[in-house]
Design brief:
355 residues, 6-stranded mixed sheet, 12 strands, globular
């Protein structure tokens, strides 16, 4: 997750996060993700008619179709920004796409469910399963990354060789990520000190004992640029975590009401991600314009990582029930959903161009 931040705040502000404070992880941690989503469900019930009206107006209007991003404009969202810049397909009645920037205070799942945007980007497919467990009727329609691109980075001098080595260390992570709850239980990390991830590498550079979450497409570039030797653990490669990353989703209502709109947006997004991998120039220009603190070099680095083929879905956006079942099992091991959870309603591939 890239750390540069734009000069302007996110378009949909929410209550700021509290000041990070170290905490000792209990053996059976509380479930903040579930509590927060439950509160979101309760809030939705209070203004459901208004939310439905907003969503209907946004989907049926003549203006741009909105995609609410899960973070500030960055390379990991490159295909979405490239899609927004591209012209509609030849002979197609496609509407313009507008990507709304996110940030640490933005929760895309409840906000899309509330009608604040027609589509959203979920950090992981695992988040969607937790949200559906809490009653939010959202559905994944496109997965640009076939594996989770999150990693944990430690200073090379710290001696971190694997995830079991994290026990007793201080780790900066985004609160309530299912992958983190899974790692803690799977590797029995009972003595980890957790602090909030701020999106900055400044504290990490100063603290040789700190371990910090990152994206394989981002922080390695900045750390190498600044001459910081590190060890990086991929939660997908070394950790075996299966969740798709930066997944495009919408609501069951939108799919039912306007399937042609969903098909059109997914087609444009697929073209956008294909184009970004081949030549990120258009998406790069849009990202740098929206987030002036971004180093243009990191966009090129991310596109190069994507071209390696290790992380991207083939064909674009592809998802399988087999992998969703594995994601379900891992989220269940994290204690966030029942092991019997039905994944079939959580995603659909019928709008993908290859179908």
């Amino acid at each position: 997750m890239a750390f540069p931040r734009p000069s302007k705040p996110p378009l949909i502000p929410t209550t700021p996060s509290p000041t990070p404070t170290p905490t000792t992880t209990p053996r059976r941690p509380p479930d903040p993700a579930r509590r927060r989503l439950t509160a979101a469900v309760a809030a939705l019930m209070l203004f459901a008619p208004m939310a439905a009206s907003c969503a209907r107006d946004a989907a049926e209007g003549s203006g741009p179709v909105t995609i609410l991003a899960n973070w500030f404009p960055q390379a990991e969202l490159g295909g979405y920004f490239q899609a927004a810049e591209q012209k509609p397909g030849k002979g197609a009645e496609e509407r313009a796409i507008k990507v709304l920037p996110g940030g640490p205070g933005i929760q895309t799942i409840p906000q899309v469910a509330a009608g604040k945007a027609v589509f959203g980007v979920a950090t992981g497919a695992d988040d969607l399963l937790v949200a559906r467990r809490e009653g939010l009727p959202i559905v994944a329609v496109f997965a640009p990354f076939r594996a989770n691109i999150t990693c944990l980075t430690a200073h090379a001098s710290a001696g971190v060789k694997g995830f079991a080595d994290l026990d007793g260390r201080k780790v900066a992570r985004v609160q309530s990520r299912p992958w983190w709850e899974y790692l803690k239980r799977h590797y029995k990390l009972d003595r980890v000190q957790e602090i909030n991830y701020t999106g900055s590498l400044a504290a990490f550079k100063k603290d040789k004992g700190l371990v910090q979450q990152c994206y394989v497409t981002s922080e390695p570039f900045y750390l190498k640029r600044d001459g910081v030797p590190v060890t990086t653990l991929s939660i997908s490669d070394q950790g075996g975590y299966a969740a798709y990353s930066n997944v495009l989703f919408t609501t069951e209502q939108t799919i039912k009401r306007d399937p042609e709109l969903v098909k059109s947006v997914v087609a444009r997004v697929a073209r956008g991600w294909d184009a970004f991998r081949a030549d990120p120039a258009v998406g790069k220009q849009a990202i740098v314009a929206a987030n002036k603190d971004t180093d243009p070099g990191v966009v090129d680095f991310a596109a190069q990582v994507m071209r390696s083929g290790r992380w991207v879905s083939t064909p674009p956006g592809a998802m399988t029930e087999t992998q969703w079942l594995k994601i379900r099992d891992q989220v269940a091991e994290a204690g966030l959903v029942p092991g019997s959870t039905d994944v079939k309603g959580a995603f659909t591939t019928k709008f993908l161009p290859s179908q």
